[in-house]
């Protein structure tokens, strides 16, 4: 049985997107090379990627394209099976790779089913999906990639009614770029 891992790139002040849902602040960091190495190691434990429709649209425009060919995580990410939870998508192609499975069921049930298989289930971004999984108590680990950037206002990565939870720090890595990788267990 795998774990459900939610990984978010966040600002130092805790936002995963600006107030309009934009993530242009990611480009404020010049060097992701050290954190990419950590990401590759994590991806070796992943058996399935679970995305919301908005993140799927962002990802499909980049990862399975020639533009991403030199990205260290592209090969592994492109080869993993993927599912998108969406009521609006009919199909979800992934460039020249296997298409993404479209699920219309409750995201908590989808995550539970995927986690019963081999490897961990990785969720990136996907604000509504992530919040549903937190609310449904389906998240085993929270991986925060904290960028050395502040926004002042934006969209947080937790649902506003998540309440108080005591998390256990499993790992903390810092990189010369100023990025921090924080890994917490919710169980």
From TrEMBL:
GO molecular function, one term: 5-amino-6-(5-phosphoribosylamino)uracil reductase activity
Domain Bacterial bifunctional deaminase-reductase C-terminal: from-to ranges: 3-180
GO BP field: riboflavin biosynthetic process
Pfam families from the UniProt entry: RibD_C
InterPro entries named among the record's database cross-references: DHFR-like_dom_sf, RibDG_C, Riboflavin_Biosynth_HTPR
SUPFAM superfamilies for this protein: Dihydrofolate reductase-like (SSF53597)
Stated name of the protein: Reductase
Provenance organism: Glaciihabitans arcticus
Lineage of the species this protein comes from: Bacteria, Bacillati, Actinomycetota, Actinomycetes, Micrococcales
